Each structure stands twice: as C-alpha cells, then as structure tokens.
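Progress report, Aim 2. The chain analyzed during this reporting quarter is listed below.
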Amino acid sequence: MDIKGKRIVITGAASGIGKETLLKLLKFEGVKILAVDLDPSRLDVPDNRVKKFKCDVSSSESVDKIFKEAEKVLGGIDIFYANAGFAYYEEIKKPDWKRMEKIFQTNVFSALYGLQKVQAEYSNPVYYIITASAMSFLSIPGYALYSATKAAVHSFAEAFQFELKKPHKLMIVYPIATRTNFFDSAGKKVPVPFPSQTPEQVASAVVSGIRWNRKKVLPSKIFTLMMFLDRFLIYPLRIYQIIENWKRKRALN
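Predicted structure tokens for the chain:
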C-alpha cells in the first residue's frame, strides 16, 4: 500500500504504540490522522495534519462517534488502527463482573465492532488493523484477563479473514511485552515479561506491515523463534510460564 495521502484513524494514539505509529505515519506526504484517546491532550504533536478526538472506546455509541468524526474531519477512512486497550496485572481473588466487562468492552468489543462497521458501511477499501498480543498464543500468569481478551481477538480474526469482503483488508499485530507507561507507572510491582521491546519497534513493524499488505505482524523475532522451537522441544513455553509465575508471586508478595 502507498501510505501517501491516506486518511488514518488511530485509537489509543496519545501514548505507547499508538503514538509511535502516529509519528511514523506522519513521515508520509499528505496523510491526515484522527488521533483518538481518553486524554488526547497528552499528545504533543504540532502538526495540523493531526486532529485530536477525546473518546472512551468501550461502548458502541463511542465507536460510532469516532467514525462520524473521521468522516467530518478527514472526509473518510483509508486505514483504521484499533489500538486502544489496557492490561491488568493481578491476582484474581474475588469475582468482579464489572472489571471483566470493562476490559472486554475496551480490548475486544470495540475493535470487533469497528471492523464490522467497516464491513457493513464502507465501499471504499479500508485497511483495518487491530493490536492483539503475543499473549494471544501464550497466556502469562498475572495477565489472565488480558490474555483472554487478546486470545478472543485472535480467534475472531482468524475466522473473519475468510469472511471479510473485498476490497477491505485486515491485519492483526502481536507485540510481545512493550515497554510503555503501563510498566513505568507500576514501578517494581510489575515485572516486565521476557522478551520485551520498545513501542518504536512495534510501530516500525506496523508501518512495514501496512506497506506490504500483511495479514499478521509479529514484531519480535525472538518470540517467533520461541514459537517455532516449541513445536520440536519438550515444553519450553510451559517452562517459560512457570518462570513468569514465579516472578508474579514475588511481585505480588
């Protein structure tokens, strides 16, 4: 895909992967970007090609507003990056329906609802991108709910790739642990899983994926190698989970 002149929506655009992807896309001539975030004031990008929009993506009404705003300020959508999401690092001790509902609404329902809107309402080609996670394939102790949301996105996308009508395209991004504000604000309480990478590395992989019309992007070569070796060796990923569980117990104690 030629990214020049494209009309782009990015959710979760004020920090982390979203912000770094936005900055890299601004290097292409003529792009216009709608930067969606809970607090878009955090995005300090002095470029009139970027339009900020404050929105909580955890409801269908809010996602509808994003599409309406994109039509208003961009004149349409060519690329929609459903990147907004959050993680819990926790030891689940009691049932909490609202907590589960909130993370699934933000991480899963929002992204899948937006994709369904593109399928139903847009005749022009839209490249739809969703940030999943390496935890879609390998859940990590301490991230049970988060892993579940990303596995749900992965499973839906695997099937929907066959149902998605032309001319639309779908790409799923599977970052490993990304060193963002989540780990910075948590301090030493939350150990960063191994391996990890920077938001810049993920953003570079996303932009490359767009240019080459990828359906999947795994930004970490180390994780790709781990997945490959797990096919031939005895329980290496299970051992990895045991190590991460030991780190979880140390952190939560």
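The chain is about 45% helix and 15% strand. The mean pLDDT is 90. These observations will guide the mutagenesis work planned for the next reporting period.
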